[in-house]
Design goal:
There is one protein chain. This protein has 4 helices and no strands. Helices cover 70% and strands 0% of the residues. The chain has helices spanning 2-5, 10-23, 25-37, 49-63. The protein has 66 residues and is mostly helical. The radius of gyration is 15 Å and the shape is elongated.
């Protein structure tokens, strides 16, 4: 699962690891270690994806006051 998770954005990686740790500490630890040892080129998709999400959140707040 670590190799597949390595293809995801860091925010998704951390969320999935947190879920795994909540379910089973040992599994979460092994998943985190496996992810660190995976030699992937980085997440798929847009590397600025987190910025786009934050921008959408910020812009949606601006419309709350209309």
């Amino acid at each position: 699962m670590g190799a597949d998770l390595a293809k995801c954005a860091p925010v998704i990686q951390e969320t999935m690891i947190r879920y795994a740790e909540e379910a089973d500490d040992e599994y979460g630890r092994r998943l985190r270690e496996n992810l660190k040892n995976t030699n992937e080129s980085g997440p798929l998709g847009n590397p600025d994806n987190d910025k786009a999400v934050q921008q959408a959140i910020d812009e949606s707040r601006e419309t709350d006051h209309l």
